[in-house]
């Protein structure tokens, strides 16, 4: 099993879209995939469930909010597997053996996030707190339960911040994947993200040693929403993609182009774009290639 956090400090760069489509393509290849929505904006959740259905069936009892509530309130923390959903219609299109599960999110996660920070004695996540390790490890520990052993891939869609909920995602992950648009602001945050992750790893390992430590690896930056003119990416995009050569982060060879029609209609259908039948769009091919490169990189 491999666990990957999808994160960038910038919103609107395609994190959720990459998470949903990468997961969907891996499941379409017969793999068992779990998506976890850690973003209070819940875009990943709403790409699989209509807002009305979410409100009626999920909001009060079946989202990560209730589980994080138990992280704060219960000793020991409650299990995570009761919150796992299997969204239709995406799963109806998968081959035998393939599975695309989801842990849904909730806007109320913002408040829980603040409560967890408070339980650590403030916003700087003091290492001296007796709860430092258990709170940071909450998601990692929950995913260690035998109910999750059957998944091949777990993808965590993180909010564009580095608060406690996001930190539990990073601590649980062996890999980090960073979608970015090829523009200045999207790439600016990448160095900052790297320094925040390094800081977290150092702090966590100092407290955790001699117990299990963490060492999440950068799979790389995936450039998304690339605008094409006749023949190739527009010049501005090309220049920024070249700029990342100097960032010392790996960059995926495969990029994902902008396609407003397909991503727009995919949302209404509650289907990741890569699963939309008979679309015959170049971007679907790119998403499949991206999944192949992802698998190759996670196996390195
Ligand atoms: N390749 C693409 N082409 C066109 N629109 C896209 C593409 N990728 C994402 N989008 C759209 O851009 C918006 C932001 O994407 P999203 O994945 O939600 O970003 P993030 O999770 O980083 O905030 C969404 O409306 C999404 O449908
Ligand atoms: Mg998102």
Task: Give the helix/strand layout.
Layout: E1 2-6, H1 15-28, E2 32-37, H2 43-46, H3 51-58, H4 64-73, E3 84-85, E4 99-103, H5 109-119, H6 132-136, H7 138-143, E5 153-157, H8 164-172, E6 175-180, H9 184-208, E7 217-223, E8 228-229, E9 232-233, H10 235-243, H11 260-269, H12 282-298
Helix pairs in contact: 1-12, 4-5
Bound molecules: adenosine-5'-diphosphate and magnesium ion.
Describe the overall structure.
By secondary structure, the protein is α/β, with parallel strands linked by helices. The protein has a single domain, classed as P-loop containing nucleotide triphosphate hydrolases (Rossmann fold), CATH 3.40.50. The protein contains 12 helices and 9 strands. The chain has a 7-stranded mixed beta sheet with strand order 3-4-2-5-1-6-7, with helices on both faces. Helix 1 (15-28) packs across helix 12. The longest helix is centred in the middle third of the chain and has 25 residues, at 184-208. The radius of gyration is 19 Å and the shape is globular. The two termini are 14 Å apart. 41% of the residues are buried. Magnesium ion (MG) binds at residues 15-16, 39, 41, 43, 157.
Instruction: List bound small molecules.
Output: adenosine-5'-diphosphate, magnesium ion
Average of pLDDT? 93
How is the main sheet built?
7 strands, mixed
Computed structural class: alpha/beta
Q: How many beta-strand runs?
A: 9
């Amino acid at each position: 099993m491999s666990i990957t956090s999808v994160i960038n400090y910038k919103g609107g760069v395609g994190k959720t879209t990459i998470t949903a489509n990468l997961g969907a393509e891996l499941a379409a290849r017969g793999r068992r995939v779990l998506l976890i929505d850690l973003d209070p904006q819940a875009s990943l959740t709403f790409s699989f469930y209509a807002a009305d259905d979410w409100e009626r069936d999920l909001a009060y009892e079946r989202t990560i909010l209730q589980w994080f509530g138990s992280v704060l309130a219960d000793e020991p923390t409650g299990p995570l597997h009761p919150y796992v959903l299997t969204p239709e219609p995406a799963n109806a299109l998968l081959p035998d053996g393939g599975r695309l599960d989801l842990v849904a999110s909730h806007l109320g996660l913002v408040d829980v996030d603040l409560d967890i920070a408070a339980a650590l004695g403030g916003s700087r996540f003091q290492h001296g707190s007796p709860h430092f390790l258990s709170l940071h490890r909450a998601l990692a520990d929950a995913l260690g339960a035998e109910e999750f052993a059957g998944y091949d891939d777990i993808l965590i869609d993180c909010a564009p911040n580095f608060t406690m909920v996001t930190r539990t995602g990073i601590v649980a992950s062996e890999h980090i994947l960073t979608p970015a648009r090829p523009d200045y602001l999207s790439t600016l945050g990448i160095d900052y993200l790297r320094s925040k992750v390094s800081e977290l790893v150092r702090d966590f390992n100092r407290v955790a040693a001699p117990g299990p430590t963490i060492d999440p690896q950068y799979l790389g930056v995936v450039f998304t929403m690339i605008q094409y003119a006749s023949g190739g990416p527009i010049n501005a995009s090309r220049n920024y993609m070249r700029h990342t050569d100097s960032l010392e982060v790996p960059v995926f060879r495969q990029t994902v182009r902008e396609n407003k029609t397909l991503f727009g209609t995919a949302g209404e259908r509650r289907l990741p774009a890569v699963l939309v039948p008979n679309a015959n769009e170049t971007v679907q091919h790119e998403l499949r290639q991206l999944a192949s490169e992802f698998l190759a990189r996670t196996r390195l």
